[in-house]
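This part of the workshop introduces the protein records we will be handling. As an example, a complete record with its sequence and its structure tokens follows.
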Amino acid sequence: MSAESEAAATNPYPGLRPFREDEEYLFFGREKQVDVMVDMLAATHFLAVAGSSGSGKSSMVNCGLRPSLHRGLMACAGTSWRMAQFRPGSNPLRAMAQALAADGVLYKDFQAADFSLAELTETSLRMSKLGLVDVYQQARLGDDVNLLLVVDQFEELFRYRKLGASPADPGSGLGEDATAFVNLLLEVREQVNCQIYVVLTMRSDFLGDCAQFFGLPEAINKGQFLLPRMSRSERRAAILGPARVGGADIEPVLMTRLTNDVGDNPDQLSILQHALNRTWARWEEKTGAVAPLQLPHYLDIGGMAHALNGHAEEAYNGLGSERKQQICEKIFKTLTDKGTDVRGIRRPTKLGTICALVEATEAEVIEVIDAFREPSRSFLMPPAGERLTAGTVIDISHESLMRVWDKLSVWGDEEAESARQYLRIADSAQLYAAGKAGLWRDPDLQVALDWRDRVKPNATWAAQYHAQFEPAMQFLEQSRLAVQQEALEKVREKAREALGLQQKAEALWEELRDTGKEHNNQWKFMRLSEIEGLWEDSLKLNPEGSKAVIQLASIRSLLVETGIATQDLNLASIYLQKLKSDPPASDLTVPQLSRELESAWAEADPALNIQVHRMRKWALAGCWLPVIWMAGYQIYAYVAKDGILDWLLATGQITIFLHFLIALLAVLTATGQSHRLVWVYTLSIFLVIFALFALNPVSFIIAGGLIHYVSKVKMQKLLLPKRTKS
């Protein structure tokens, strides 16, 4: 045995778990109430011990009532007792049968043949409401032998009854077993000559649920023992008594602090026992058990407010690996239930079921469970030292752990939310199968799908809440596929609509190419805008279209504008076909595309740009021809000085004037609506005319430079394709 286990074995405070019957010598503070319980049980054969969670109901029965009966405190019954204790769980009749079939209760060393004693007992219990009486009488224990049947955590019955009832028949399934189980217990009250006594322990907040069973409220009213609060002196006895049994003492300062911290709230008694257990361990560690327990020992463990949470966190962090912590989370989610009852109750589960639920091996699960049930902790039951098998029932030692351990509280809320989500899906699946509801749609569907992907539920987990796991998941998948199909059909419809717009744009393009020469530029630009609008609409409908298609639309717009400017849409179409057969890079931006187009345009078939070259030739020639002519005129006038100068002057004036008119017409043809360039050229012509009549060389140079700038820079940008936005 390890040093920690030895220390826990000598610790007089049980911690979070209830006191066991063999720990009666450590149980203090409730002595006065035991007599009342015994008298009430003797009078009614039916006793319901009720109290809030953490008030010590189970400890009261284990260390108060049971030892008192063995000592003969119930004078009318004697001292010969057989006792069976169990929790109803999900199958109360089977749990009762197994408790009665335990060795030493009804039979000793029973030799079973084809069927086990538990199976035979369960069969007898299911025969009628007198089943319990029949089982007792068949055992032939003798008239002086009494049977005490303790149903611990009776509130479990209400949860499992609710869980087992189907929507179609609330009284079916486990609900029928629960009713039969209660009838077996109630029949004991009617058999006054039968030596059977029934004791229930139940949380007081479940008393109202007892009205679900006929006869149960009346039985409880006659045999109810509501566990009272402990007085201050009783609390001091519960604190100091075990310490003195263990050979220690408690300083008055610590005693006062403990008494004040627990207050009058009975819910704190289990937390008090845990804090005392931890304080005792810290005291032994620091002093070697040679001095009284002192306040610093209590403060070291965080006091009642934080001791339990800190201790549980210590166990969780001590698991080490993330895998073990994930298994731990799933185990505790399995053992707590807020989904069917917001008050939260324990949910004892067999080890084999836990392994299937958390999807881990038995060795992995046992390793985690052992970390929480070692003697110094006792967060899980059965206690340390008891061998665990697939059939062993694992349980939380007390509900207070669910309230005080922050991490477990969060896990409980998450589990409850998962349960609600699953139940919604399962109920909707049943309604859908019955033709009373349709498949789910967003946002409910998306929330459910996110939950499924996050939680990854399995059939074992789902069986805790609703048996129809496979139909529920099929319903969810059908809903997903239906929504996916609808979305796909919408995409296809948009694609078809986009294709129709593209085909319409192609038709308009062909019309523009074939009949463009028959219309003016304004008509062409309107048609071009319509084509571009159709392409934009098609791309909005089908945004997943390739980027090359979008860029090709931009190229088309550039070529159309160029084709309009050059009065040759057929040639632009030829170049467009070349681009279709050899598309540009997919990551090319529109400005880069425009520059490539400018370069490609210069290298294309000369027939494509002959008109541009012609216009630029006339415009650029008009830049310097007047200057050259004027320079020649001045030189000849200086040398010749005869009558031929008048003829040259008149001829030059007419020639230059005609040249500028031709350049102006070229610009007007190329610019379409560009009024600014028209006015610039008009101003240039007036300057040239003035220069011709004034014969001023400076005027010729200014006019030639202005025309050169306009023709070289502005006209080039106008005639070559514009860079448009895609």
